[in-house]
Amino acid sequence: MAAAVAQLRRIGLPRLIVHLSVLAIVLLWLFPTLGIFISALRDKDQLAVSGWWTALSTAHRTEVARLADPATQKQEGNLYVIAGNVWEAGDARTIDSFGTRIQEPSAVKAGETADLGEGETLQVNADGSYRYAKPEAFDGSRGRRIYLTVTTPPEFTFDNYRTVLNSEGIGRAFINSLTVAIPATIIPILVAAFAAYALSWMRFAGRTLMIAMVVGLIVVPLQMSLIPLLRMYNEIGTIFGVPSKTYAGIWLAHTAFGMPLAIYLLRNYMVGLPKEIIESARVDGASDFEIFVKIVLPLSFPALASFAIFQFLWVWNDLLVAMVFLGTTKDQIVLTGNLNALLGSRGGNWEILTASAFITIIVPLIVFFALQRYLVRGLLAGSVKGG
Amino acid sequence: MVGQIVSAVGVMIVGVLACIAYFWLSNKLLDMIFPVRDGDVMAASRSLRRRAIVRPWLFVGPALLVLVVYLVYPVIATLILSFYDRSGTQFVGISNYQWALNDREFRQSIFNNILWLAVVPAACTFFGLVIAVLTDRIWWGNIAKSLVFMPMAISFVGASVIWKFVYDYRAEGETQIGILNAIVQGLGGTPQVWIALPFWNNFFLMAILIWIQTGFAMVILSAALRGIPEETIEAAVIDGANGWQIFWKIMVPQIWGTIAVVWTTITILVLKVFDIVLTMTNGQWNTIVLANLMFDWMFRGGGDSGRSAAIAVIIMLAVTPIMVWNIRRANREMGGH
Question: Is A202 exposed, middle or buried (0-12, 13-18, 19+ CB in 10 A)?
């Protein structure tokens, strides 16, 4: 005790409070996600009847069982006895307690004998074997119904993942999401990098205006673009006889929607590159194209990486653009769209929802933890963007 | 499936190559059109000057094209469409806006959006600041920050599933599998259908966005706090200021600009909030917001582009002051270049 007090004095009470409050915040932030991680791995019957935080403890459940028919009774001395096992062979569950009324499914502990009045007794053991005895012969045609409180050990399984990947279309949607996200990340980087170079190192009329336009467009809500673009896509589709909802269409849309932030971030970075390097290359007779490809592009790697992560997360997590520019058929629906559809059709099936949600968020989480450094840098550089 | 992967990879390569080819070929072409030959100095310098005029436009061309087609033109078109009827053919003046002002759902959306604007940016900034200050003082602060920051990577739809599970409801007396109702029932309360609880359900939806965005506020504010010069804090300590005073009178005033940036960024995000409401309630139980109402009218009854556009314009109007502020700030910062 004295040692603990000394320890506490050394750390200091205020410091301890800081540690504990940060711990509380972190747990609060982690708890919701933990819920679906654990639930997705649970047996679906257990998931439906107990909270995920009890996943590691053994579950107690009430079950109904029927004793054998009166026809199987045997006479032992002056008692009529029905004996047997409530489980089929091979069942490993253990019985905690039992009862004869639904209101009291755990009235009597397993292994003890329940006195049912008028000399009638029932004994159920933990392994399921029972002995039901009575001074008079049993009548009726069906066995007696009894209630058991059963303990089941925690069960973890990958079945939920197998189900959603195959029969709920999540596997296919995963591929679709990749098909959307990768080109929609690479194309805007290339296009924006050239523009950013021109806006930082080349002189031309209208440069300031274009920079102002880019900054202004960063915050323009997507909603302002949707209606005219939807019309435009439909018209182009009708005129040229092509489908209006295509992957190429959504790549271009994402390229454009990511463009203002991309140009802004990259320009801010490129402007800060040392002037001497670029000027001396110019003096040596290098063209702007060569300077850009050989000097500026490699030096801008950190900014390019920051934007790539932003754009990838944004495209992967987007629902609105995909709902407008892509179809909802199996070969076009993306993960977020599929998850949204499942929320409607599988509202109560948490084993399906949690496993699907996990597959939806795992890729961004890997990207996040692997490349967090670049993401933070990008955020600090581009915090005028509204998402 | 394999076919799709192959074709996706193929298209990816073609797309990227086409991009590279455009920039490379257009530059080559420019050099060929305006050749620089030895000998004729006058002609050479004229060529060089012309190249310098054209080349910037080759570089910004594709970017400018997508910006104009996908953002500038649609903004103007939406503005115009908002004065036309449902099919966009008949001019109807301001009647779409008049309709909006008298529409019950629209009023509900405005009310909810204001509620969101009042709560979410303030809550995110406050929690972000508190967590940034606390984590800066402990050795495992970076791990803690990383975990609070993590929801940033999760999609709104994924986050909605996560929180729908938290809010899950079973009838009273049954085993609750949603943690919130389990806690409420454990403490002797009555479990509630949280997302259908009038008025308060808005706050349960906001909790999701706060959960996602606090990490963003924390990261930015934490960097700003580290940028505060040590001397100012040391001077305050010498003058006998306590921790509370140092925080409010020394630290907060110095990061005021950053707080404003965080606040406005989250404000814009809140104005556009869509996915969370769509997946949690689809606007039922009085939770509808402008972005969802707008999306609804895009397709409702075959779509009403007039009403939908009018709602979009109203979202745009709300964003405009922030946009102007951003442009001015950027222009000021650019002064040197």
Answer: middle
Put simply, the answer to whether A216 touches B326 (Cβ < 8 Å) is yes
B67 touches chain A (CB under 8 A): yes
User: Is B216 in Cβ contact with A247 (below 8 Å)?
Assistant: no
Q: Which residues does chain A have within 8 Å of residue B291's beta carbon, measured at their own beta carbons?
A: 221, 223
User: Which residues lie below 8 Å from residue A232, measured CB to CB, with a gap of 6+?
Assistant: none
Q: What is the pLDDT of residue A170?
A: 85
pLDDT in tens, B44-101: 788 878 888 888 888 888 899 999 999 999 999 999 999 988 887 888 888 889 888 8
User: Which of A198, A288, A365 minimises the CB distance to B153?
Assistant: A365
Instruction: Give me the residue from A192, A212, A317 closest to B327, CB to CB.
Output: A212
Q: Which domain holds residue B31?
A: 2-81
Would the pLDDT of A386 be above 60?
A: no
Regarding whether B239 and B316 lie in a shared domain, the answer is: yes
Four-point Cα dihedral A350, A352, A353, A355, nearest 10: 110
Q: Which of residues 214-233 of B touch A (CB under 8 A)?
A: 214, 216, 219-220, 223
Contact call for residues A199 and A211 (beta carbons, < 8 A)? yes
Per the structure, how many domains does chain B have? 2
User: How close A273 gets to chain B, by Cα (Å)?
Assistant: 13
Question: Which of B25, B157, B267, B326 is the best mutation test for A, with the most CBs of A within 10 A?
Answer: B157
Q: Model ipTM? A: 0.86
What are the tens digits of pLDDT across the range B292-324?
Answer: 999 888 887 777 888 899 999 999 998 888 888
Cross-chain CB nearest to B19 (options A187, A216, A331):
A187
**CATH no. of A160-381:** 1.10.3720.10
B164, A348 contact by CB (below 8 A): no
Of the residues B33, B49, B81, which one is the last residue of a structural domain?
A: B81
Nearest to A383 among B15, B72, B265 (CB): B265
Residues B304 and B204 in one domain: yes
Residue B181: CA atoms inside 13 Å, Cβ hemisphere, count?
25
Please tell me if residue A361 touches chain B, with a CB cutoff of 8 Å.
yes
CA dist., res. B98 & res. B82, Å (int): 11
Contact yes or no for B60 and A210 at CB 8 A? yes
Q: DSSP string covering B54-102, please? A: HHHHHHHHHHHHHHIIIIIHHHHHHHHHTTB-TTS-SB-TTHHHHHHHH
Inter-chain residue contact B5 with A175, CB threshold 8 Å: yes
Q: Is residue B140 part of a domain?
A: yes
Q: What pLDDT sits at residue A71?
A: 78
Domain end residue (candidates: B81, B105, B125): B81
Which residues share a beta bridge with A101? A104
Estimate the crossing angle of helix A350-381 against helix A13-40, to 10 degrees. Answer: 130
Let me know whether B64 and B205 are in one domain.
no
A187 vs B131: CB contact, 8 Å cut-off?
Answer: no
Q: Domain-by-domain residue ranges, chain A?
A: 12-55, 59-152, 160-381
